[in-house]
Amino acid sequence: MIERTFSSPYVDIAHLLVPVLWFGLLVGVCFVAVPVKFAAPSLSLPVALDVGRVTFALFNDIEWVMLALTVVVVVFSGPHALPAIATAFLALILCVQTVWLLPVLDARVTMIMAGGAPPPSSYHLYYIAADVLKAGVLLVMVWSQASQLSRALAPAYHGRRHGIAPSVLPGQHS
Fold it and tell me: For residue range 21-65, what is the model confidence (pLDDT) as tens digits?
C-alpha cells in the first residue's frame, strides 16, 4: 500500500472522487448548461446574461466548497507534491475568477441590462480559459490519484486472480 502519514482507504477514494465531482460540475455548468442557454431562441440576451450571472455566482460558491474539500483531502492524504501544487494552482485560478473576472463580468451584465453597450473585451475569454485550465488541472489530479490507487491495488488484484490470499502477498501486512 502507498505509505502515507494520515491516509486511509476512505481518504484515498475521496482524493479521487472530489476532483472527479468538481470536474463533472465544471463541465456540466460551464461547458454544457451555460452555452445551451444562449442557444435558446426565446431567451433574450439580457435575461440570458442575468441567468448566467446568478448561475456563475452560485457555482463560484460551490467551487470554493470543492476547493476546501480538495484541501482537506490533500492534507490528509499525506505529503505529495503534485496534489499540493495542483490544489494551489486551483486556488489561484479561483481567486482570479472571484476577485477580478466575476466582478468585471457582472458590471458588464449590469450595463447591458440597463440598456448600455459596453466596449468589446476579452474578459469572457479569460474566464473560459481559466475554466479550461481548472478542468485540465482536475484531470491531472484524477489521473494521478487513479494511477496511485491502481498501483496500490494491483498486487491484491493479481494475487486474487491467481488464487493467492491477499494477506500473503509481499509487502502487505494483515
Answer: 999 999 999 999 999 988 999 999 899 999 999 999 999 999 999
Q: Enter the DSSP assignment of 116.
A: -
Q: Residue 2 to residues 64, 70, 97, 103, 132: CA-CA distances in angstroms?
A: 29, 19, 35, 43, 31
pLDDT in tens, 49-59: 999 999 999 99
* Number of C-beta neighbours around residue 57 at 10 A: 12
> Which one, of 139, 132, 106, lies nearest residue 31 by Cα?
132
**b/e 144-159 (16+ beta carbons within 10 angstroms → b):** bbeebbeeeeebbeeb
Q: In the chain, count of helices (H) and strands (E)?
A: 6, 0
Q: How far apart are the first and last CA of the chain?
A: 12
Give the distance, in angstroms, between the CA of residue 20 and the centroid of all CA atoms in the same chain. 7
**Left if phi > 0, otherwise alpha if psi is -120 to 50, otherwise beta: which for 123?**
alpha
Q: What percent of the residues of the chain are helix, what percent strand, and what percent coil, each to the nearest 5?
A: 80, 0, 20
